[in-house]
């Protein structure tokens, strides 16, 4: 039987004349940081002080010894970052030039000093560019010439920290006769029967070529066996009435163990194990009266995708543990997310990521790794890209959460709109990958899943690549140039990217910028703002609704976070209310890779922003919203649950002082997975001319199947004028604290409103950096109260809580 030796210990990194202890998996930056050779590049402006690291060559060394008694020993690297030459006992072993591939070297009978020498990624990119010629991109860094995580070279939310190192596990595999070299399970369901078609390939030793090999597969109580014809075999498992895997909110996520054993007459030689799920996935791109659709269909059920975009959760991905993946993805699921798009400028994530998604019911949209650039299609890149795609399609295809392969991020759009055609002068730019090579590879290796050529992409060159009426759409004009109300100006078929910036939590800023007096334009704040004119866009977004808080950082911080939450909510509420024309929203972005002002809902230290809590509201199965419309506001009851929803909604036209001017009860009928839209009766529409009236819609909590209340009621608000034009009273409220009995450090903050209190927000990290609370912004009418559960805050006083509470206050 094959045995494996993990090579995690005993590595050193050459740093000048020194040998530093190296951690594998890891990278040069993390090793230098552990040795005290550099300061933390995530803090202050240290990023610029370590730029030299990415421009040097680095060498990892280790003694390699083994005595296994097997016929063959392979040295296997799951990830080398990036351009490396390897020697063993001074003799060449091989070279690599792709961060995203697995490498295997035959080291049978060989021992001695193993050296892995990494060239500077800049030098490697320059060498490739000299062969292929120049290609345009959106950043002045050469990421399109090297198969490396593009955002290593900086992005509009990320630092420029160009890594090198053994970033994924490395091991010795000792084996005899034969091993399982590739396993591809094609999992389908038809007429109540699950089918697992296992296609496999074995590698044999010279002696093993004469041996008779057989393979056994087991799943869900079903067994199949076959002999290998040459080096390949196909086994089929027919599973009657399997339990189906569903996205969260649609059903459960049963997983089945699929196990393979390769044997010869002497017994087992190798094994392979993954968990699989039975489900069907289709992508409906049919034309209709509105254009060309883009709707995911799971197990025959059409799904409005409640999505988030995912970037690497750390600028140094080797630091991301399975527990960290689980934490971040559980946060996503708890916010009502059911789809995570892995963006094309990052990495193909670790199995731990997809395992968590399998269990949590999070659908995964996987980009191939191309982003915001023209990519040469000549060698040496073309061969690397094909090998990379094949490697990762085979590696990831067992995961039932994986529902879509996508060719690239914004490159088809970039070719059309970003002035690439002239500089390219007819040279290749990647179209052959997205419309040729990649769909062929997916069709050959993983025909059970749909492929999309890019995001955005209208489906063909017959339409503009980012046409909102056709396929996927990226909505960035609003953040860049307009008020967030403009999200309501169109109904795209699928919004694959949109978002609004805000700074991270205050505790995150204080940790990242130690000792710096915080101001929107302080040196550290500007360094941790990577977007072009980012602060200008932030301030203009605030100024459209509020007077700018000159000289008051805390108020500026609150208002920018508030506008982020409102902006994203405005888009999602509008687009969800137009289901099924619009079939999904994928917010840019869920997470950050370091402490930074960005579009993320969870900041670089893992703290939820107010946007995170807003996602929990607008991505809930049932959403009540008041949508502005040219003919007057519309009440929309959005029901993504499997049961009908017939809420008795109380509509009130209310004055700023809390007086109800008119009231009525309406009863929308929202069938399962549908939307009910009702125009607001004319006598309830607030008079915008007064600047003193607004509209409130309240629905009671929906009963559960057992008759119990399912939670709090739902509220929607409509203010017909910008905040700065509304006659807000000076907010007054009372705060009391109620300790929560039981384990843990918990307290309920009870806020009782004496006036209209708009967008009340508790920032728990102001009480304690470890504190969290259970809700975001809320609006209270006079006489109403709310209860905010806070955990991890330690002993607190009313005064401390009051200092951590913010609301709209124009006084």
Q: Quick one: CATH superfamily of the largest domain? A: Glycosidases
Helix content: 10-25%
User: Into how many domains do the coordinates divide?
Assistant: 5
Mean pLDDT: 96
Count of DSSP-assigned helices: 16
Biggest sheet character: 6 strands, antiparallel
Strand residue content: 25-35%
Q: Which shape, going by the Cα principal axes?
A: globular
User: What is the CA-based Rg, rounded?
Assistant: 28 Å
As for the CATH topology of the largest domain, it is TIM Barrel
The computed structural class is alpha+beta
What CATH first level of the largest domain would be assigned?
A: Alpha Beta
The strand line-up of the biggest sheet is 3-2-4-9-6-7
The total strand number stands at 46
Please mark out the parts with pLDDT under 50 across 5 or more consecutive residues, or reply none.
Answer: 705-709
Report how far the terminal alpha carbons are from each other.
Answer: 76 Å
State the CATH architecture of the largest domain.
Alpha-Beta Barrel
Catalytic activity: Hydrolysis of terminal, non-reducing beta-D-mannose residues in beta-D-mannosides
Organism: Streptomyces achromogenes
Domain Beta-mannosidase-like galactose-binding: 11-168
GO molecular function, one term: hydrolase activity
């Amino acid at each position: 039987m094959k045995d494996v030796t993990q090579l995690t210990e005993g590595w050193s990194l050459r740093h000048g004349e020194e040998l530093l202890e190296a951690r594998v998996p890891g990278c040069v930056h993390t090793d230098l940081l552990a040795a005290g050779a550099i300061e933390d590049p995530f803090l202050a402006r240290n990023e610029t002080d370590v730029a030299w690291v990415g421009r040097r060559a680095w060498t990892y060394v280790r003694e390699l010894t083994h005595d296994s008694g097997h016929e063959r020993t392979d040295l296997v690297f799951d990830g080398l970052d990036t351009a490396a030459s390897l020697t063993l006992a001074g003799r060449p072993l091989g070279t690599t030039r792709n961060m995203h591939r697995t490498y295997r070297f035959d080291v049978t009978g060989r021992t001695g000093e193993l050296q892995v020498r990494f060239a500077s990624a800049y030098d490697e990119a320059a060498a490739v560019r000299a062969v292929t010629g120049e290609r345009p991109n959106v950043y002045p860094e050469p990421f399109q010439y090297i198969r490396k995580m593009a955002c290593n070279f900086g992005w509009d939310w990320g630092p420029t920290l160009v890594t090198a190192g053994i970033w994924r596990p490395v091991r010795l595999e000792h084996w005899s006769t034969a091993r399982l070299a590739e396993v591809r399970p094609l999992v389908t369901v038809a007429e109540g029967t699950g089918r697992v078609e296992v296609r496999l390939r074995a590698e044999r030793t010279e002696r093993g070529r004469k041996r008779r090999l057989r393979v056994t597969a087991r799943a869900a109580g079903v067994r199949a066996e076959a002999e290998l014809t040459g080096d390949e075999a196909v086994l089929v498992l027919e599973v009657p009435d399997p339990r189906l895997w569903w996205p969260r909110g649609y059903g459960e996520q049963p997983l089945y163990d699929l196990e393979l054993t390769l044997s010869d007459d002497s017994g087992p030689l190798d094994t392979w194990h993954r968990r699989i799920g039975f489900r069907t996935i289709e992508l409906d791109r049919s034309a209709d009266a509105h254009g060309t659709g883009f709707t995911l269909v799971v197990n025959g059920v059409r799904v409005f995708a409640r999505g988030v975009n995912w970037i690497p959760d750390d600028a140094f991905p080797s630091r991301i543990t399975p527990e960290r993946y689980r934490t971040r993805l559980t946060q996503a699921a708890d916010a009502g997310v059911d789809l995570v798009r892995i963006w094309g400028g990052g990495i193909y994530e670790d199995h731990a990521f997809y395992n968590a998604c399998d269990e949590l019911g999070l659908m995964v949209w996987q980009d191939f790794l191309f982003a915001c650039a023209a990519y040469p299609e000549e060698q040496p890149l073309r061969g690397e890209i094909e090998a990379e795609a094949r490697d990762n399609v085979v590696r990831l295809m067992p995961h039932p959460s994986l529902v879509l392969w996508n060719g690239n991020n914004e490159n088809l759009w970039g070719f059309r709109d970003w002035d690439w055609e002239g500089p390219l002068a007819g040279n290749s730019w990647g179209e052959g990958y997205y419309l040729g090579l990649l769909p062929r590879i997916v069709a050959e290796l993983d025909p059970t899943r749909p492929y999309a050529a890019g995001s955005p992409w209208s489906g063909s060159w017959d339409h503009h690549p980012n046409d909102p009426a056709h396929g996927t759409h990226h909505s960035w004009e609003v953040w860049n140039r307009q008020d967030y109300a403009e999200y309501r100006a169109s109904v795209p078929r699928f919004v694959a990217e949109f978002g609004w910036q805000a700074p991270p939590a205050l505790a995150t800023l204080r940790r990242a910028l130690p000792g710096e007096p915080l101001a929107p334009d302080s040196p550290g704040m500007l360094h941790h703002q990577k977007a072009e004119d980012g602060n200008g866009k932030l301030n203009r977004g605030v100024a459209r609704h509020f007077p700018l808080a000159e000289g008051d950082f805390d108020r500026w911080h609150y208002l920018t976070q508030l506008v982020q939450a409102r902006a994203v909510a405005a888009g999602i509420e509008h687009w969800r209310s137009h289901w099924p024309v619009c079939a999904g929203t994928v917010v840019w972005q869920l997470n950050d890779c370091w402490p930074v002002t960005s579009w993320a809902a969870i900041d670089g230290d893992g703290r939820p922003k107010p946007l995170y809590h807003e996602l929990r509201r607008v991505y809930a199965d049932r959403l009540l919203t008041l949508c502005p419309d040219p003919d007057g506001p519309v009440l929309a009851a959005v029901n993504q649950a499997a049961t009908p929803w017939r809420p008795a909604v109380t509509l009130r036209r209310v004055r700023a002082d809390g007086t109800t001017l008119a009231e009525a009860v309406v009863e929308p009928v929202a069938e399962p997975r549908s939307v009910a839209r009702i125009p607001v009766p004319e006598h309830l529409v607030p008079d915008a001319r007064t600047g003193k009236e607004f509209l409130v819609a309240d629905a009671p909590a929906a009963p559960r199947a057992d008759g119990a209340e399912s939670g709090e009621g739902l509220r929607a608000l409509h203010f017909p004028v910008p905040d700065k034009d509304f006659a807000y009273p000076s907010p007054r409220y009372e705060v009391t604290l109620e300790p929560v009995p039981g384990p843990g450090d918990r307290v309920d903050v009870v806020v009782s409103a004496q006036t209209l209190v708009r967008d009340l927000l508790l920032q728990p990290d102001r009480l304690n950096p470890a504190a969290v609370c259970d809700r975001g912004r809320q609006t209270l009418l006079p006489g109403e109260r709310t209860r905010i559960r806070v955990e991890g805050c330690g002993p607190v006083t009313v005064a401390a809580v009051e200092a951590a509470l913010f609301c709209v206050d124009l006084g």
